Amino acid sequence: MEIEGEMPDNIIFGCFSAYLNRYKDAPADYDKVYIYSDKKDLKKVEARFPFKKGSANLIVLSADVWLSDFGMITPDCQTFVDLWNLSEWYAKEYFEALKKNILPYYYA
Question: What is the residue extent of each domain of the chain?
Fold first, then answer.
């Protein structure tokens, strides 16, 4: 929450943060924040979060030109793909919860 709270404007939250912001639920604790940023806003992120040795807890992905059209969090389709591709154990918890939210008829 601390990392998320210190984000500059014009970034787009993805993965776990996107799910939490959209559904107001956290299926598991998470220790990594994934964001999307374009090149011009990357400098703002780097200024607030200088590189440090150790395990990464902030992962910045390159945003395409259309992603910002969806607001400050990734749309469910992007979140779905991102979660499916992550290796963290808790990604599966978020992936399954997202499936239940976007495919309720399948889980009824």
Answer: 2-107
